[in-house]
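Researcher: Let's run the pair from yesterday's discussion. Sequence first, then tokens, for each.
Model: Starting with the first of the pair.
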Amino acid sequence: MTDITINQFDYSRVIHFYETFKSRAFQNINSDESFELSLEEKLDSSGQFFLINDLIQLKGVYYSKGAYSFFGAKPGQMDPSVIFNAIHPDDIKRFSNARVKLIKLGMEIFNNKLDKMCLSSNFRVKNSTGKYVDLLFQNYVCLNEAPHKTVFAIQVNTNITGMIKIRHGYHYYVGSDLSYYRYPDKDYLKIGNIFTDREWEILNLIANGLESDQIAEKLFLSVHTINRHRQNILNKTRKKTTHDLVIELQERGLI
């Protein structure tokens, strides 16, 4: 297990903020209150910021000071469109797919089909200096009953530029294991990136419509070897067919 340093932020502080102010719909929060000042200081020291989105009303309801600083937005000017416009053009499709997935999770929780969930992935995002950085989006998604029933996504963002070189695709996690809502380490960022160079190459060829014999010919390998790689891929992902896996990867914008 990776050691947690003093600068790594404890996400329970964000949950505590959420629990404290949710009944007020995150309105009329005094930024000079000692609790929020301490929270902002801890976030700043770990290079992070957070925001809260209402997934039913499809709007942002709270942005920490760090969010305004990161995007270079003035008070009152932050909304989801600011973030969308900052996404790297090559990541927009994947970001849109992740957003759709997040909203679907919100609807399933709203209809009581799911409990609390986490969804996280990383995207290249332009900061206030005009530079693209690798930004991790970690969402804690939960039901809120008062003052009205809705679902909130409490999103912590972390600049992970240089923390890890991801070989294939991107970090991606969606599930009910709330232990993943924590400061990221290298093992955490590897989640969703489980394929070898050869497996990734074969998956892309499958996505392009090639059969095993065609892939074998293209890669100068035997059909037996290609089929062995395909079986290893299925074992890793617990999918019944590579076709199902390719569809999922395409929906996530990875291939």
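Model: Moving on to the second of the pair.
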Amino acid sequence: MILRLYLFSLYSTAIISAGLAGMIIFNINPFDAPFWMIMIFYVSVFLLLLAIFGLIGFYLKVWATNREVIFAHIIPTLRQAALMAVAIAGLLFLQQLRVLNWWVGILFILAIIFVELFFRGRKK
């Protein structure tokens, strides 16, 4: 994948999902909304967080390595951004179900950290 296409897709995903999440937040009553509308909200929040964390992580890794091997940062950054987005969207979902407290949140975050450690520890 060309780097420009990667960055363009992340920017466009962030803009579109931010607009969709904003429209849902300001126009939909969550107590009367059907299930599919709530799922669209969570998907748009996930995509927004994925794009934001992906862009921030990519630019931080490029800056930290002084612009060396830029293409090597794309896949790990997207994986880490997806895990952070799953963590935040999952915590939002647990809060909606009213089952989120501090120990459930810590266990959920630890599970996601262990998934990342699994991917880092794999041998190629």
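Researcher: Give me one sentence on the second I can quote.
Model: The chain has a mean pLDDT of 92.
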